[in-house]
Design goal:
The protein is α+β, with helices and mostly antiparallel strands. It has eight helices and 29 strands. The strands form six sheets. Strands 2-1-3-4-9-8-7-5-6 form a nine-stranded mixed β-sheet, with helices on both faces. Strands 19, 20, 21, 22, 23 and 27 form a six-stranded mixed β-sheet that branches. The longest helix is centred in the first third of the chain and has 24 residues, at 17-40. It is elongated, with a radius of gyration of 29 Å. Residues 1-46 and 517-546 have low confidence and may be disordered.
C-alpha cells in the first residue's frame, strides 16, 4: 500500500501565443456552458466514481488490512469504480481528498489522542471534505479510532467500548431497502469478534442491522437494541459503518462483500438510500390533545387527517387536527366491572374505502363482558349512529386467569387485498383440545362484504367444512396475540403475543399454520415451518398493557 497514485500530472509543453488566445476563448465558452449545466443538474459522482481506501495507524492484523484493501479493489474492478489505497495520513489534504467520492477507513486503529493517526491538519481536511458532501465508510476497528475527537465519533456513529471473543452469532437485518442490506437474509449467521459500544447510537443513526443479543453472545452488554451496521447524513456528508470485517475470511464472504459494496456505493452517492428513517431527529412530536384521552388502546388516521382513538373504557373519540377539537361520536358505556372482566374496547381499524363508505371496525366486548364482537359502524361526519352496527363475528369472552382478569388485547389490520386480519387475544393454553374450533388465541383472516357479512379467503389454515375447525383461522397456537400488522411491501403479517413465561414474542407469520408455543418460541421455528420468528425478542415480565 502506498500513496504513489497521488502524484501530480507532468507539465505540458508551452504553446504559441495565438493558440493560447484561441484556447482561452474556448475555455471561457466551456466555463460558461459548464456553469449553466452545473446549476441545472444535481451533483452526482462521475462514472466511474473513485474511492480512497485508508488503512493508517497500527492494527493487530495486517492480514485483515490487506484483505480489506484487496476486497475493495476487487469490488471496484467488478463494478466499474476506481480505487486507490494508502496508509499514509498525508493524503488527508484538500487537494487529494477532492478526487474521491468516498473514503474507506479500513480497520483503522487509533494512536493516543489521534483518530486514525491523523494530525490536526488531517482532521481539519477530513472535516472540510465531509462538510462539502463527501462520503465516509468505516469497517470494524474504525470505531476504535475516535480517541478524544468528538466530531469523528459522531461521524462513525459510536465509539468502541469492548470486544467479545470470536464466536458465532446472528445479525438481524432491519432495512431491506438500503443497497447495503437489501439482499441479506432476515437473520444472517456470522462468526465475528462482536463489538460493544460506549454509547448506544440507536437514536442518532439509522440502524440497518443489529446483533441478535438474545442468541446469547457472551461478552455483550444487556439491552434489546445493539446496532451492528448503520448509516446517517452527518455534517453535510454521508456516513456508513459496519462492525463486520474483523478477519480476512470476512472479505471472502460473498454476502459480506455485497453488504460492503452497497455501503460504498451509497456513501459515494452512486446509489440512493434513506438513512434518516429511524433517527430521532427525523420526527416531530405534535400533541393532539393536552389531556382527556385516558386509556387509549388503538388509533387510526382518516384520509382527511381526523384521528380516531379507541379507549378501553368504551369511548371512540375523534381529534380534528385542523381545530384540535376532540369529540366523542360513540360511547359503549362500559362499567368498570365489564372492563375489568373482558378488556372492553380492544381494537380499531378504518375500512380501506373509508373516504367513500365511512366504515370503521371495532373489536369490543358486549355490555356484560361475556362475549366479544367484531362490529362495523358507519360514521357520519363526527357522529356515529349505534344503530349502524353490523356484527361480523361473535365469540366467547376472554378467559380470566388465576392471577386476575385478562389484559386488554386484540388488534385489527387490513392488507392490500382488502382482507382483514383479526388478532383476538386470549390467555388460553395453546394446546387446549378445542383450539382449532376456538377463535381466541388466534389470528383470523376474513374478507368483509358490503352487506356486513364476510367471506373466508382461500389459503387459511383450515378448509371450509373441516370437522372441528373454524375456516376463519389463519394462525393459531398463540397464548395471547395482542397486536397484528402487515408488511406493506411483502403483505406478510406479523403478530406480537404474550408467551407462556410472560415475555413478549414477535412472530413473522410467513404462511397459515400452528405458530407460537410449542412450535415457535424463543426465536426458533421448530415445526410446521408455517412461521418464523426473526424478531421473537422477549422482554422479561413485559405484558401488553397499553
Amino acid at each position: 500500500m502506498s500513496s504513489r497514485p497521488l502524484r501530480s500530472d507532468p507539465v505540458s509543453p508551452a504553446l504559441p501565443p495565438a493558440s493560447v488566445a484561441l484556447m482561452s476563448l474556448l475555455a471561457l465558452l466551456v466555463l460558461i456552458t459548464g456553469s449553466v449545466a452545473a446549476a441545472s443538474l444535481p451533483r452526482s459522482p462521475a462514472a466511474p466514481f473513485r474511492v480512497l481506501v485508508y488503512s493508517g495507524a497500527a492494527h493487530p492484523s495486517q492480514d485483515t488490512v490487506r484483505a480489506g484493501v484487496e476486497a475493495v479493489r476487487g469490488l471496484g474492478v467488478r463494478n466499474g469504480f476506481g480505487v486507490e489505497a494508502t496508509d499514509d495520513p498525508a493524503v488527508f489534504n484538500d487537494t487529494d481528498l477532492a478526487r474521491f467520492h468516498a473514503v474507506v477507513f479500513n480497520n483503522t486503529a487509533s494512536a493516543p489522542g489521534r483518530a486514525g493517526a491523523l494530525d490536526e491538519g488531517g482532521r481539519a481536511a477530513l472535516r472540510r471534505y465531509i462538510r462539502a458532501g463527501g462520503g465516509w465508510v468505516g469497517l470494524h476497528d474504525a470505531s476504535a479510532s475516535t480517541g478524544e475527537w468528538d466530531w469523528y465519533e459522531g461521524l462513525v456513529g459510536a465509539a468502541l467500548d469492548r470486544r467479545t471473543p470470536v464466536q458465532t452469532g446472528r445479525v438481524e437485518v432491519l432495512d431491506h431497502a438500503h443497497p447495503s442490506t437489501g439482499g441479506l437474509p432476515d437473520l444472517w449467521e456470522r462468526t465475528e469478534e462482536w463489538l460493544d459500544w460506549r454509547t448506544d447510537p440507536t437514536s442518532t443513526v439509522h440502524t440497518l442491522a443489529q446483533i441478535r443479543v438474545r442468541d446469547g453472545i457472551a461478552g455483550l452488554g444487556a439491552g434489546v437494541d445493539h446496532p451492528w451496521s448503520w448509516c446517517q447524513i452527518y455534517d453535510g456528508g454521508r456516513s456508513w459503518f459496519t462492525a463486520g470485517g474483523h478477519a480476512p475470511s470476512a472479505f471472502q464472504d460473498d454476502a459480506f462483500l455485497a453488504h460492503l459494496l452497497g455501503g460504498i456505493e451509497w456513501a459515494a452517492g452512486a446509489r440512493p438510500g434513506d438513512c434518516s428513517a429511524t433517527q430521532a431527529g427525523s420526527f416531530q412530536r405534535t400533541p393532539l390533545t393536552a389531556g382527556g384521552l385516558l386509556d387509549p388502546v388503538d388509533v387510526a388516521v382518516a384520509p382527511d387527517r381526523r384521528v380516531f382513538v379507541a379507549r378501553r373504557t368504551g369511548e371512540l373519540e375523534v381529534v380534528d387536527q385542523r381545530t384540535m377539537r376532540v369529540s366523542t361520536p360513540l360511547d359503549l358505556a362500559y362499567s368498570p366491572e365489564t372492563v375489568a372482566r373482558s378488556g372492553g374496547l380492544s381494537a380499531l381499524v378504518l375500512d380501506p374505502g373509508f373516504a367513500e363508505n365511512a366504515w370503521l371496525y371495532l373489536l369490543r366486548s358486549d355490555a356484560t363482558g361475556g362475549r366479544l364482537f367484531l362490529s362495523r359502524f358507519t360514521a357520519d361526519g363526527d357522529t356515529i349512529d349505534p344503530a349502524s352496527e353490523k356484527r361480523l363475528l361473535a365469540l366467547p369472552g376472554r378467559r380470566p386467569t388465576a392471577g386476575g382478569p385478562p389484559p386488554p388485547s386484540g388488534s385489527l389490520v387490513f392488507d392490500r387485498e382488502g382482507r382483514l386480519y383479526v388478532a383476538t387475544g386470549d390467555v388460553t393454553p395453546p394446546d387446549a383440545p378445542d383450539a382449532h374450533s376456538d377463535l381466541r388465541g388466534a389470528v383470523l383472516r376474513i374478507t368483509p362484504q358490503d352487506d356486513g357479512t364476510y367471506t373466508v379467503p382461500e389459503g387459511n389454515l383450515f378448509r371450509a367444512g373441516t370437522a372441528g375447525a373454524r375456516p376463519e383461522i389463519y394462525a393459531t397456537g398463540m397464548r395471547n396475540p395482542f397486536r397484528v400488522t402487515v408488511d406493506p411491501a411483502s403483505g406478510t403479517p406479523a403478530a406480537a403475543a404474550t408467551a407462556p413465561d410472560g415475555t413478549v414474542e414477535y412472530l413473522r407469520i410467513t404462511g397459515p399454520g400452528q405458530v407460537g408455543r410449542p412450535y415457535c418460541s424463543g426465536g426458533a421455528a421448530q415445526a410446521h415451518q408455517a412461521a418464523d420468528c426473526p424478531r421473537a425478542t422477549g422482554v422479561g415480565g413485559e405484558s401488553p398493557q397499553r
